[in-house]
């Protein structure tokens, strides 16, 4: 009788151990499955972020906030403007390479256009060879860039001149901006924040203007 009881107890203990092991294995399997699901979801989320460009997309507007830029400033040959003689180095608009500081201007683009007015960075002993059509009487309200187009807005007050004045002024700005900044493909001129047919009544500025021989 005692022997039968002992066998029965052994059978029950063995059964309980087996059941316990089975539950432990099941719990471990569920934990592993849940961890794998969470890892897969995290991986999918990471891939989605990269795919939408939230982490890698470039922001063209960052160029506007640059503190300095290496630029090419297009000036007019003073000899050509004042007496019709040969331009500097045979060029009507000889470009001058230099560094422009943004300073207090809103954008580096605005600083670059204003540099044309200051004959910057031409050495003092060479300034008599160059001339800028961006005169003190011409006020530039703003220079912004959007989707490859630089928008240059002039104030209408004091904006007068002949056809050569207007052509050379436009060329100076268009070539300076397009040759200095890879993100600029063309320049659109406006007056007092509005679209206009011309700056001074001679050149059609209703559409963006490209630097056609760069």
Explain what the structure shows:
The protein is of the alpha+beta class. It has a domain at 62-191. The chain is 40% helix and 17% strand. It is built from four helices and seven strands. It has helices at residues 2-52, 78-83, 108-117, 163-180; strands at 68-74, 76-77, 95-101, 130-131, 140-146, 149-154, 186-191. Strands 5-6-7 form a three-stranded mixed β-sheet, with helices on one face. Strands 1-3 form a two-stranded antiparallel ribbon. A two-stranded antiparallel sheet has the order 2-4. Helix 3 crosses helix 4. The chain is globular and about 40 Å long.
Sketch the major β-sheet.
3 strands, mixed
Spans where pLDDT lies below 50 across 5 or more residues: 1-29, 35-61
Shape: globular
Oligomerization:
single chain
End-to-end separation = 110 Å
Radius of gyration: 36 Å
The strands making up the biggest β-sheet line up spatially as 5-6-7
Q: Roughly what percent helix?
A: 25-40%
* Helix/strand class: alpha+beta
Mean pLDDT: 76
What portion of residues belong to β-strands?
15-25%
Order of helices and strands: HEEHEHEEEHE
Q: Helical stretch count?
A: 4
How many β-strands, per DSSP?
Answer: 7
